[in-house]
Amino acid sequence: MSTENRADALRAYIAEHPRSSFENNPWALMAAIEHFATTKSHMIIFRESKVRIARAALEAMPVKPKVILEFGTYVGNSALAWGAILRSLYGEDAAAQGCRVYTFELDPGMVCVAREFIQLAGLDDLVQVLEGPAAESLKTLYEEGKIARGGVDMVFFDHWEKYYLPDLLLCEDLRVFREGSLVIADNTDMPGAPRYLKHVRSGGGGGLGMVRYESKAFESTTQIGVPSIVEISTVLET
Ligand SMILES: C[S@@+](CC[C@H](N)C(=O)[O-])C[C@H]1O[C@@H](n2cnc3c(N)ncnc32)[C@H](O)[C@@H]1O
């Protein structure tokens, strides 16, 4: 099945349920998406077992996160999670308090599906999907002043692994991190992002003015029981 057909089938599956079961209930919508992705048609989403790991890290941050960047939206499953976590940390008026999730996606079809789901779950005031290459979207946000120096609390990498390191280096160049920001990356073991892992695990590029990290691998399991790593790096110095 093509990506587009799979997304249409997912949309149809969600539409079989009463809208009220998902309205203002992102966790229920994520559970339904994951059920579809597991039982109906294989989809590569950031699953609940991994969301739990990331959520614990976000909730343990000494300074509560407000601004999240996500590289790779797909159908919006993890974007829903980030919005739901910010809402649980800040309450219904999280957006008015400055909370934002900016999520980047290349595929226009996926952008539409993700926006529909985000709206259905009542998170459209918090979560914004930007269409196009993630690096370009990030530069635009920065130029527009929507992302400031030191203004990003968490970055999530879940697009194509070859872009993980260049896009992390772009975040470093734009100086969007603060001390304590988190960088979370999926699939660093499989398909694998060796250059990215080397960078964060060796503490960063080194040298004056470079971002320094402390990095740790968290093991989770996929739906077929295969171990899978989520790499969480904490910014020590900017
Ligand atoms: C593994 S999926 C993301 C899954 C998503 N985080 C979730 O949990 O539902 C990867 C997505 O990244 C997108 N992508 C890949 N490279 C990209 C880039 N350079 N900029 C923006 N999106 C990209 C792909 O089109 C695909 O939809």
UniProtKB/TrEMBL annotation:
InterPro entries per record: SAM-dependent_MTases_sf, SAM_O-MeTrfase
EC number assigned by the record: 2.1.1.6
GO molecular function: O-methyltransferase activity
Keywords for the protein's UniProt record, in alphabetical order: Catecholamine metabolism, Methyltransferase, S-adenosyl-L-methionine, Transferase
One of the GO biological process terms: methylation
Enzyme class, spelled out: transferase
Lineage: superkingdom: Eukaryota
Family: Belongs to the class I-like SAM-binding methyltransferase superfamily. Cation-dependent O-methyltransferase family.
The name this protein goes by in its record: catechol O-methyltransferase
Organism expressing this protein natively: Aspergillus ibericus CBS 121593
